Structures are given as C-alpha cells and as structure tokens.
Amino acid sequence: MSRPLRIVRLANFVTPVSGGLRTALQHLGEGYLAAGHEPVLVIPGDMSPGCPAIRAETTAQGRVITLPGTVVPGTGGYQVLARRRPVETLLDALAPDRLEVSDRTTLRWTGEWARKNRVPAVMVSHESADAVLRTWGVPSAAARSAADRLNRRTAHAYSRVVCTTPWAAAEFERLGARNVVRAPLGVDLDRFRPALRDGALRARYADGAAVLLVMCSRLSAEKRPGRALEALAELRRRGVGAALVVAGEGPLRGRMEARARAAGLPVTFLGHVADRDRLAALHACADVVLAPGPAETFGLAAIEALACGTPVVASALSALPDLIGPAGACATDGRAFAAAVQRLLARPESARRAAARLRAERYGWPAAVSAFLAAHDAPLGAPHVHTAAATP
C-alpha cells in the first residue's frame, strides 16, 4: 500500500487579508489532509519585537509554520521569506517527501535545494510573469524577454510546473518546457450558491440603485481596480442607475475613495471581508461582478461569483474569458466594461444567473485536489500520516 507523503508547501504574500492564494492554499491543504497525506504550509509573518522566531499551529489544512518575514514596500503589508538560511534549516528539519512552492520571487532557490536533496518539487505558477511585468509598465518586448529568462530557469529547477489554466501555461510552453502540467483551482460550490441571493440585503447594498455592481479584489496597481470606478462612471453617464460595492484592501484604497468622492460616485468600500459566508452573500446579491485584473491566471473571486449565479465582466487580457465563457463578458477599459455590463443585463435574469452557476460547476475543489496530487505523483488515499521527521 502506498504510504502517505509529507508535502511541504512554501508561499509568500499570504496575510490575513489575502485573497485567492490564501483560499487556494487552504482548500488544497484540506484536500491533501483528507487524502491521508501530511501537508505543512510555511509562510512569512510578523517580525515585531517580542514575536517568536517561529510559530507552528495545527489547522484544518494541516500544520502552518510562520517564519519571520520581510515587508515589501508599497504592497500594503505583504511579506516575503527573504532570508534563505531559516527556510533551508526548516526544510532540512521537515525532510519533505514532496515540495510545493507558490512563489517565483525570493523562494526560487528552493528548486536547487530540492534537486540536491532528491525531493520531487513542484512550482505552482499563480501568475503570468509576462503579464505582471506588463502591468508594471514594462514594454511588451522587454516583459516577454525577461519572463522567458525567468520561466526557463524555473522549468529547469523544478520537477514540474503546475499551471491553473492554458493561458498561464502558454508562457512556459512557448519555450518548449516539457514538465508543465495543468491543474485548475476550484470553488466551494456549497458555500457559494445562488440561494444566498436576498432582496433585503441587496437593497441595503444598492441603496436605491437599480443595478448593483460588486468588485472583490486586492486594491493594488496590478489588479487595475480603478477600472471599476471608470465603468461605474460610464454607466451613470449612460443613464444607468448603478452603485458599486468594493470588497478588498490594498495600497490604492485611499486614492480610490478620494476619487469616488470627487466624482460623486455611489461606492461602498467594505475593506477586506474575512467572513466567507458574508462574501458569498455579497456575490449572490450583485447583478454583475467586475474582475478587471489583466494578469489573473484563474481569478478565484470571479468563479465564486459565478457559483452564486452572478455573471462576471472580466479583463480581456487575463485568463478569465476562457474560464467564464458565455456566463460573462470581457472588456479592456472602463467604457468597454460598462458596455459589457449592459449586454449582460439585457439577458433575462433567470437565464444569465443559471448560466453563471452552470459554468462554475466545472470547477469543484475535489477535482482540483486530485489534479494537484497527481502532479505530485501522490496517491489519492494514503493509509496514515507519518511523523518520522523532526518538527519545529
């Protein structure tokens, strides 16, 4: 019988107000644990005076170990594991059977560590390097060249590169990388469901507006959250009585609030919504959800909206057009987003909401967990969890 595997997962940019990555890590960890394996997640944390150098806790997704992190300026508090030695010491102590890395910045060296220690290692590409560089203003040719160099080294350093969509895989496949596997993420179809649509709650959020728009996104430059304000302004210019609710936190929040006030736009900023049930209810109450990020490789918030029966307008530059299909629409600038919203609203409500839910049902978490375990060559049902290696 196959023995269970200790799957050590490393990730940066995971905080209490993180969005899709934090959710994906949790569901995958829970799935690994349910399959009989031993997932261990290592993330950066607070370096404040008096905090322990290392914290470990047992959670529903397995052990979560926090090491001192370094704050990245201008990101609203995101942290990275910038020091190699503490991470390497921890990896030596944990003696993983498999390594899974959800970062291509400060943790890229772990591929070398895994190769040296003969540990099969997977790099999960949660973003397109090419697309992210372009959102930062790097010219297209330079962005492609830099991404190709980074991706070539990544493909060489790790046993496999996991991409959640064909769109994400394209930048590796154009290099001829043969170790790319596709494993989509998922959505909690029980928590995010159309039945949560509540007229009274919708009326409270809409505050008299005929159309309720929602955007669930980190408020940072690469997510292009300002597109939602542009779309709202354009809709109101066209005579559509629309209001917008923004769920999310980030360095651009203050600027966006000031912009909305100056333009007299009806926008409610909720900040980070930690309660997943509350977030699901918000998605269900919306008429349309906006997903303007041009570098999204999966767009978990958008799929959660579809699961609630709410159509999505997404960036045409991201992976989302293929994911949402006929259950939504795509656009580039604010005017195009507004036009796409109007096209969706022109459809009968029952039809557009049914199409959204049907599309989301393609992406359950059990299938995602199975695909990720297959990328690790890990059995779907291990008999027990081993604890032979030292633990901090």
Structure description:
The chain is of the alpha/beta class and 392 residues long. The protein folds into two domains: 6-186 and 364-375, Rossmann fold, CATH 3.40.50.2000; 194-360, 3-Layer(aba) Sandwich (Rossmann fold), CATH 3.40.50. It contains 15 helices and 16 strands. The strands form three sheets. It has an eight-stranded mixed beta sheet, sandwiched between helices. The longest helix has 18 residues, at 140-157. It is globular. The chain starts with 5 loop residues before the first strand and ends in a 17-residue tail after the last helix.
Question: What tags apply to this protein structure?
Answer:
eight-stranded mixed β-sheet, 392 residues, Rossmann fold, six-stranded parallel β-sheet, alpha/beta, 16 strands
- Fraction of residues in helix: 25-40%
CATH topology of the largest domain: Rossmann fold
Number of helices: 15
- Which stretches are poorly predicted, pLDDT < 50 over at least 5 residues? 385-391
Radius of gyration: 21 Å
Q: Count of DSSP E strands?
A: 16
Q: Averaging pLDDT over every residue, what do you get? A: 91
Question: CATH homologous superfamily of the largest domain?
Answer: Glycogen Phosphorylase B
Q: How are the strands of the largest sheet arranged?
A: 3-4-2-1-7-8-9-10
Alpha-carbon distance between the two ends = 29 Å
Largest sheet: 8 strands, mixed
